[in-house]
Specification:
- The protein is built from seven helices and two strands; from the N terminus they run ααββααααα.
- The protein has helices at residues 13-41, 55-60, 74-88, 91-104, 109-127, 129-134, 143-152; strands at 62-65, 68-71.
- Helix 3 packs antiparallel against helix 4 (91-104), helix 4 packs antiparallel against helix 5 and helix 5 crosses helix 7 (143-152).
- 20% of the residues are buried.
Length: 153
């Protein structure tokens, strides 16, 4: 018995095959574009705001170095925000927000002590050593207090 290797042709196979080939070419492009758009809409900043990071927001977190802009690290952005809070409100508010930021974003824990010391030194410049020390609390161990002590001595 001899088997034939040719298949009988079926009607309707031509248009279906063309549609399938078209989808095979177009579908990956559509998926890549929709994935790219989805990634740009995600709030990657870690802040609890529901806003989308725009180009103007991104430029606010850049610093110019020799004519080139480079983005600030998250811990630098946090430090600058907390220093502003320390000046506008008080060190207690800044320390509370530092603890909340570290709790919400554990990757900042490695920078917590450094930021707290910076806040302590700034508090001494603004409030004096006695008043600055009154705001000390166990955020990032005793780094705020050590920053106060370092600025005072």
């Amino acid at each position: 018995m001899k088997h034939s290797t040719t298949h009988p042709t079926r009607r309707g196979r031509g248009p279906a095959r063309r549609i399938g080939r078209s989808l095979a070419l177009v579908l990956p492009v559509v998926l890549v574009l929709s994935g790219t758009l989805a990634v740009t809409r995600v709030n990657w900043s870690g802040s609890p705001s529901n806003s989308v990071l725009t180009a103007s927001d991104a430029s606010a977190a850049e610093v110019s170095v020799h004519g080139r802009a480079r983005p600030l690290a998250p811990q630098d952005v946090l430090r600058d925000q907390l220093l502003t809070e320390l000046q506008e409100k008080n060190p207690g508010v800044a320390l509370t927000h530092l603890q909340q930021a570290v709790n919400g974003r554990p990757s900042l824990a490695a920078h917590c002590a450094s930021i707290a010391r910076t806040l302590g030194r700034a508090a001494v410049r603004i409030y004096g050593p006695s008043r600055a020390q009154s705001y000390a609390r166990p955020v990032c161990d005793t780094s705020f207090a050590s920053g106060v002590l370092a600025a005072h001595s």
